[in-house]
Design goal:
12-stranded antiparallel beta sheet, 4-stranded antiparallel beta sheet, mainly beta, 1 helix, single chain, 48% strand, 532 residues
């Protein structure tokens, strides 16, 4: 997932078009009133106040088109409280937005958790700024029934005319951590939002589009459906609104399934380019994209994801050095933790490739002397499985069904063997047509590898990515162009259907369970004009 500070140029262009649309939007009859939240004739913007420096100038003439571009897209999931003894206690707040002021609105219970989401690879401005959305019920005795409004919104999906009905959610900025971690600080650069039921106006067409969405729960393909919510920034208990122009339009989603597993590579110590770096690798042409270098100096000899998406690596520096077991952030490539030196309780070990066994999440590693070990991911303690009796070692990988493959590439052998993970005994052997290393097996069973130095290979460290057939023949995919990968693995689509999270917001701490496959809404940053 790429993290960036601003939206890409296409979004800026969309916002500029929206500004132009606002400048010519029809206003109400009579003299203009700067600060009433309605863009009228003679005004280029109106954010509901006459304060300058907050996106719209005090005289409603200048709209800062960069203001609010840090407002992310959000993907919202249904939630329920997981700990009954610590359930949310309802409370009453004052709410004021560009539609109305409600002196008493009862916040009832949490309904959604909304993660900032990377849409179509555009990036995330603030990956720590989440929202918890609550159901609420207004005391309308003083203001009467909510009056429907017709609005025009502009966002990356174009111009749309919506009919806004009654309010139904209040969304609060929140810190979030996946259980058992504790959330960090509550975000201070994100507004509260008051969300209303919304639908397309008669005759207004909103196209359905396919989008790829990646957040801390999911990496999946969706199709947007009809509009379901429109959200105004809202003042809660007279707190200031940060950006009156930053609205959200929320669309229902149809889940089209997981994205293809992303391929990662750890760059070898002997690479001429970026030894120790983490790459993502295009499975179509083999090209590599550098994420970061978490273990300089040295190299990443092994790289492996567990079933939940945690990424581990084994380091390898110069000849004769031992290996450290490390954990790496798969989003940024940064080093998260050094677990410790891999050892068998007596000696420190030099470990090449790593692989997690499907179904058990036991980490296996192959040592420089071709001995097979299991490795504790908490202590880095290695336990000998067995000696396969091979002269050389290379790549290590499990198929989704649990078959363990090992590439042997040395002075005289170019082989792909299968091992029994219980005792390391050799089960089958095929000769390969080139030296291979760095095995990785995709969830559909396709076996990828890197070309290795060895017999007939000149002993070099090429950066060639290949696929391997069961008869040992290889097909070149392409060159990484970013370093020689010593090991490959694929980031899994998270298989959990429910995810436990802890949140903290201005209403307190919550322990929640999110329904991962119940991603209901995609909320898109939007501008708004109220039509007469």
């Amino acid at each position: 997932m790429r993290i960036q500070s601003v939206r890409p140029a296409v979004f800026v262009a969309t916002m500029l078009l929206a500004v132009a649309a606002l400048a010519v939007a029809p206003g109400s009859a009579g003299a203009q009133t700067c600060g009433d939240g309605v863009v009228e004739a003679g005004e280029n913007c109106d954010d509901g106040n006459v304060v300058g420096g907050d996106c719209c100038s005090a005289d409603c003439q200048t709209l800062d088109v960069t203001c609010g571009l840090s407002l992310d897209h959000y993907q919202c999931y249904q939630i329920k409280e997981r700990v009954k003894a610590n359930k949310f206690q309802s409370l009453t707040v004052k709410l004021q937005d560009q539609f109305e002021t409600v002196d008493e609105s009862r916040i009832k219970k949490p309904r959604f958790i909304c993660n900032p989401v990377d849409k179509n690879g555009e990036g995330i401005a603030d990956q720590d700024a989440h929202q918890v959305c609550y159901t609420n019920k207004d005391d309308r005795s003083a203001i009467g029934k909510f009056v429907k409004r017709t609005i025009e919104v502009s966002n990356q999906f174009g111009l749309q005319t919506l009919v806004v009905n009654r309010p139904n959610n209040v969304c609060i900025p929140a810190a979030k951590a996946i259980d058992p971690d504790q959330p960090g600080a509550v975000p201070t650069t994100l507004d509260h939002f008051r969300c209303y039921k919304a639908k397309p106006a008669k005759g207004s067409m909103i196209p359905e589009v396919e989008v790829t969405l990646e957040d801390q729960f999911n990496r999946r393909l969706y199709r947007t459906k009809k509009c379901a919510r429109f959200c105004n920034p809202v003042s809660k208990n007279d707190e200031a609104i940060l950006n009156n122009e930053g609205h959200l339009t929320c669309y229902r989603l149809k889940d089209l399934g997981p994205l293809q597993d992303a391929m990662y590579g750890g760059v070898a110590n002997g690479s001429a380019v970026d030894p120790g770096a983490v790459l993502t690798i295009d499975q179509g042409d083999g090209s590599g994209l550098l994420l970061a270098d978490p273990v300089t100096p040295g190299g990443l000899a092994g790289l492996a994801f567990d079933s939940t998406g945690l990424l581990f690596g084994s380091t390898a520096a110069g000849v004769g050095t031992s290996s450290e077991l490390v954990q790496v952030d798969p989003d940024t490539g940064a080093l998260l933790a050094t677990v410790g030196t891999i050892n068998d309780g007596v000696d420190d070990l030099r470990i090449g490739d790593l692989a997690f066994e499907p179904g058990t999440d036991v980490l296996f590693g192959i040592a420089q002397n071709a001995l097979l070990y299991t490795i504790d991911v908490v202590t880095a303690l290695a336990t000998l499985v067995g000696d396969p009796g091979l002269a050389d070692n290379g790549g290590l990988a499990f198929t989704p069904g649990g078959t363990l493959y090992l590439a042997t590439t040395g002075s005289s052998t170019l082989e792909l063997v299968t091992l029994d993970p219980a005792d390391a005994s050799v089960q089958s052997t095929v000769v390969t047509d080139r030296g291979i290393d760095g095995l990785g097996i995709r969830s559909d069973g396709v076996l990828f590898a890197t070309e290795a130095g060895g017999a007939g290979q000149g002993g070099g460290k090429p950066d060639v990515i290949v696929t391997i057939a069961l008869d040992g023949t290889t097909t070149v995919v392409g060159n990484t162009g970013a370093g020689s990968a010593a090991d490959l693995d694929f980031r899994p689509d998270n298989p959990q259907t429910r995810i436990d999270v802890n949140t903290e917001d201005q209403f307190g701490d919550l322990t929640l369970q999110a329904r991962r496959k119940a991603a209901k809404l995609l909320c898109v940053p939007s501008t708004k004009t109220v039509l007469p």
